[in-house]
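Can't paste images in this forum, so I'm doing it all in text. The chain is below; anyone willing to post the predicted structure tokens underneath?
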Amino acid sequence: MNRLSILTIILVFSMLKVVADNPHLFSTSKCLDLLCSFQYYDKIKSNPQFMDLQNDSSFVKAIDSINSRTRASKLCNAYVKYGTDLNDVDSCIFFMENIVSLVPKSEQQTEWIRNIIEIHEELCYVTKRLIQNGYCEYWDSIVNPSLQQQIDIYYSTIPDGLLDAIHSELKDFAEPEILSKLHSKTYIVDIDNAFNLDDESFCCTPFLLDPELEKKYHLDFIKVYIHENLHRLDISQELMSHLNNLLQDDFYSENEKIAAEHNEGQNEAFVVAAEVFLSNKLGRRSSLDVYNEFLEYVDGSLVLAPIIYIHLPERTNTETFNSFLIRLFNEDKIKSGSVKAEYDKAMRQLKESSIQPMSNALKLISK
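Text version of the structure:
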């Protein structure tokens, strides 16, 4: 083998490694779409391969039973949590057939998972009938190409080099910690809404890939991507212990209750502070955006986020994010009894920073 061939192989391998290490913004999933098709059956039933299912009374009864007991979001969460391959329908069938043994007994009495377990026979029947009638071929030839087309259109709106810059910033921010190989994903699914998954992933309708709708609903998939990937950072038990002790602080505790109503809170403030910091650094958030995010996100209840944000420039090169946060507690920059004072101070500082660029712009206009 000549030297040129060896160099070519090395170059190709390096390119493949970059792709593997830096995943795309969006993914599709045959299994998630299959699970969502129960709730959205009206969208597919007019397709030729599924029309005869309307004459199968057992199928109609089973799908009605499923939709009366659970939702697409619950089924997807269950599969992500207890299933395996997101694109192998055989794995999906195995999950349906063996859900009782796959879900730990301690978790089987949780209402949403109990509802699924109690209808697992109906789930098995509907899943198998859809597959027998050609669901895989339907997804491969119709659903996935349509989703990929809309994803490609969205990618065309992203500035060149932005994703590479994000991956570089995520790596630099994590150092000296090495990020886990598990990348969170936003799955574009053939549905009409959007919902979070328990593994910090996100299922979303393709309609929201329209830049105008993305703006209308105050979404930014770039920021979502940064946010979800920051959940890969290690959070130690020591840090969580500090956080739990903070519940003695009335201001913090009151706001945690508000956050909990949105299924947020706890270490979410750490991730929000880090995402806003990186998005600002990448030029995705202005100073005013930073201030408004802390004021509005989860009704402004993540009160530790702005405190952490203003101290992030003090983080040393040898500190992991986890170590830096522990230091903030150890140095009493975050402590019970003073959270409101520190929060007010941080928000004043951020508000002043957001006003300064506007006043500078007005000075330029008046000249």
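The chain has 19 helices and four strands. The radius of gyration is 24 Å.
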